[in-house]
Write a structure and sequence with these properties.
- The structure is a homotetramer.
- In chain A, helix 5 packs antiparallel against helix 12.
- Helices cover 40% and strands 24% of the residues of chain A.
- The mean pLDDT of chain A is 96.
- By secondary structure, chain A is of the alpha/beta class.
- Chain A has 2 domains: 2-113, NAD(P)-binding Rossmann-like Domain (Rossmann fold); 121-327, Dihydrodipicolinate Reductase, domain 2.
- Chain A is globular and about 55 Å long.
- The first copy, chain A, has a 7-stranded mixed β-sheet with strand order 12-11-7-10-9-8-15.
- Chain A is built from 12 helices and 15 strands.
- Chains B and C meet through strand 7, strand 8, strand 9, strand 10 and strand 11 of B and strand 7, strand 8, strand 9, strand 10 and strand 11 of C.
Chain lengths: 336, 336, 336, 336
């Protein structure tokens, strides 16, 4: 039975804690949060104790940590956890600064602890099936990937101001999907973006509507489109084209009910947002982490994956700013 | 916190026990089963004790029972639980004999205990949405209901021999769906049936392929088709036609992945069988039972619903045998 | 180049005449209609002449006739055309009386002329593909057929009064589909019906909502549901279940456009009615007739098919009236 | 009745000639082709005469010309037809050289004859419905357009060598769609491309797989993906995202038949290629041309549309070569 300390008792923290509790192989021992009240509530619900960071990391009974606190604390906590010899499950992004990500990765490598980065979409049943069927050869060699990823609405401006911008905050998930499904590292990035949803977004120096192109060394191509607005809910679809055919993973809906009336034939809108669409993905990613720690197997998503997605986001920022295609190194610094 | 005793530690019992454990309002106290080993295993998993029937029913701490043992024990257990003053959650069917069902209902009425009959499909998200949207007026007054309900394969012959026949064992769920969605009691039943899957089924006097028509007093019509064979999995679809349009609830699939290749554009088969398709329905029906007991509200599916579905099954048996449309009483004996 | 005389210049007549004109192998020579004006207009449009029946049938240049006049004239015209040695394309039904149908079939057999009965749905691309894929073995031996066939709205009451009733007028197409797809003659018929759309229909002794069950000698089952109302247009769907799987032919839509908005994800309603849905079927059936006449091959749909569908309709009428399953002879009188 | 002279008796020429013949308002008078045999065959089929260019253009009875000959002859023929005062229906592209396009446009403007450029996709029922529903306000102001346009297979290398390259030959249709649906001229173009289908394509200096981004002055974005390979047929889909929702136009299929078996639930592949998918679009575009000429209304697709699509194609060529985002003038030279 693995013992966990969890940093962060907010919305995502609550999900991880509940999934942990449902596992036969893990137990939540400590909850650490800047809000004592949030920590208390979550700890009580799952039979854990509230602790401070030092206590939790010093306790030799703790095997692993979940880092689900605010983004700016991820790297520090990961470094501290690595030094304490704990296995690390870290929410994405590791950090918004590549320099700090590299410092974190160095500490993790030095401590030789396993680290998992929470790219939950890799564990979504539909997207995971894409990956498995590509691996199985259903469409032959991959040629093009097309990712549509659109949020139902704008987050608060206060959030946008510290988010690192749309590419680092939102597209980063799609960069990870593109890398994972292309089966090859992108080496060129071209991006366009604008502010169509709310002019206030432009005032904080961000975009709300972007499109990206990626190209790998062998010439495979990927496209990503993002919007901070989708009146019909959370639009999460991926297409992969290969020599022998095309795979599409579509949206998920609450029911299969369809109405035909005098106006149209209509079905459910997609599940509303990431908590609904990726509920199963959150369950499965934590189970995968627990399984890998227990069996001392390689992490299915590692810190270099977190780093390389950020590299692509930074290239997109630059491409947008400079109006040119930006080349990136295919090999992540210290890659696997 | 409601305390439960559960009769039956088999496949369905395991599902109910797990759903009970996940509830914030219920606790599994006793497991009772003819197999001591099965009872032990299930009790251990959920922190319950193994008991015998007398002990469990005599314990005043027990608020409610789940009857998930073999069909021939349902009525007796329900009568005993009613006399002990426990709330009853009983798997369908209450019994295969209408006489024994009536005895059970009389005992339940006399004891004034709440009784829920496990027509889980009423809690399937898609089918429940049909019901809600009909109630909301999306298609106006209901005119016709069409139910396709097809199993992936034959159960063992040993099971078929004690099942009461296809109408009582399989179609009974669809009779309940038809009553629920028609919004009016069927008063006429016509049935056809044959043995197309395996001639061995005919030898035990049963059918494996049936079609039924139902008609209500005001002329609403329903059709049910059943087969004990569906090479592609579990086919569970319902259409409802009304004055203003049509609602269809389709099959559920594990993913939304679609492959286009040189042969076809193809998607997932439906979820394999009832454990997969109705996992959510099992969760929701037990939650509905717990909620109704806690808040002392009427049961959402009562013993008269169990009885009336059996009345329709018996009429179908007679229609098939006699080659004529059989009339049934619209009002269930002792109906609500 | 085959020369045609066409009886009937109404709505269906206009379709056949236009399809004839587009053929490289046929020419419309005469149009005959009770309305001189309708005949003139249609003849002028396609470079044909107006004629009376005697002239048209006496002209040795005429190879074939199309009978698209009112139902009560079909049998007489077919008999006259048979005696004149013309190949016959006759709109369904041959007649509403089985006695007169038999007289017509006797005349046709005696004259040894080919006769085609216009069950156009056999030539609908989707339904035809069902038949071809069954023949190809895609689903193994057929077990059940389910036919949904629903009109957008009621025809005028004046039409209903002479239509022969819903089974003879509307269900007759579905009886033909059932026979064709079951691959075996139905020998038992059970029917239910009511008047849900308009009470005026009951006053003329008809139904507007019916459901039928059919069974073949080997136990194959079929279901048909009909309504004279479908708020969303013309609902024409067929399912065929076999040992190895299920084939479904769905509705056709004008476009593939789908809208996702704050309310739903919605697509086109089905094509409005038979003229839209079966436009291609009308083209292909006439081409098939022309081809069969030119190459002296057997008619793909013959007069016995017209007769046997009527036999099933009459059995349904009796089943509805008498409340019992009606047996019919599997072998059409004078069958092929 | 408009009289037509048609240049070109090849595959597309045969389609236009047949659609012309079916019109009540047009007649094919002359066919002109470098192959006397092809001209003879087509002329004979539609009751036209074979002529040479001079004769056809000099005949005052000729109201309009269809230019469906090889691309390198389009501009010259259009100029000659303009000088002869004929209305012009010209297959796309007008020319592969912008200079020659401009010369052609100048001649057409000077002669004040109407000219239609054959962007047939604007007349595809599904794509046209997109445009109409945007105009109707179904999705509010347009924000993003995503175009997937993929051919079933490579054309012959000999064709590729004179095609002008993938952007001018294939993407040009998609540039037109993007302009039409964005409702605003693109002013920035970024492109990536590679050779994944066949290395021989690279040898002739072309690509077979490209992705493009476009941006309008107000910040609207569009993406186009193209491939010269799609194992499942002709993939032609467009998505448009607006403030209030999303419209998608999907592929068209020959039937609606769906098979569920032990492997999957599978439907038809898309129609094979442009002749199948756009058969209706070809019919409707010619009808639109005839209607506009007859009623002296503005051409629904004019020469400036042909020019501006070429401008975007040239920008894509440059973006691909130079690795930067290329700006283009929003206003077509001599725009309407």
């Amino acid at each position: 039975m693995l013992q966990f300390a969890q940093f962060g008792a907010g919305r995502i923290g609550a999900i991880h804690a509940a999934n942990l509790s449902a596992s036969d192989h893990a137990r939540l021992r400590y909850v650490i949060d800047v809000s004592a009240e949030a920590a208390e509530t979550l700890a009580a619900r799952h039979g854990a104790s509230v602790a401070d960071r030092a206590t939790a990391l010093a306790d030799p009974a703790v095997d692993a940590v979940i880092i689900a606190s605010s983004t700016d604390t991820h790297a520090d906590l990961a470094i501290a956890a690595a030094r304490a010899g704990k296995a690390i499950f870290c929410e994405k992004p590791i950090d918004l600064s590549l320099r700090r990500v590299d410092a974190c990765l160095a500490a993790v490598r030095k401590a030789r602890v396993p680290m998992f980065v929470g790219f939950n979409r890799r564990f979504d049943p539909s997207f995971r099936t894409l990956h498995e069927r590509i691996a199985r050869g259903d469409i032959g060699k991959v040629e093009q990937v097309i990712i549509s990823s659109r949020d139902p609405g704008l987050p608060p401006l206060a959030y946008l101001e510290v988010s690192g911008g749309q590419f680092r905050d939102m597209t980063i998930h799609d960069f990870d999907m593109a890398r994972w499904l292309l089966g090859e590292e992108p080496v060129e990035v071209a991006a366009m973006g604008s502010c169509l949803v709310d002019p206030a977004v432009a005032k904080v120096g961000d975009t709300d509507s972007v499109m990206v192109l990626l190209k790998t060394a062998s010439g495979r191509l990927a496209h990503i489109n993002n919007s901070r607005r989708a009146a019909y809910g959370y639009d999460q679809r991926i297409e992969v084209h290969g020599v022998k055919g095309r795979l599409i993973a579509g949206n998920h809906t609450p029911t299969t009910v369809e109405l035909a009336d005098g106006r149209a034939v209509s079905g459910d809108k997609p599940l509303y947002f990431f908590l609904e669409r990726y509920a199963e993905a959150y369950r499965r990613e934590l189970a995968a982490f627990i399984e890998a720690v227990r069996r001392k197997r390689p992490m299915p998503v590692g810190p270099e994956d977190g780093r390389q997605a950020l590299v692509l986001a930074e290239a997109a920022v630059r491409s947008l700013r400079e109006g040119k295609t930006v080349r990136v190194a295919a090999t992540a610094k210290g890659a696997r």
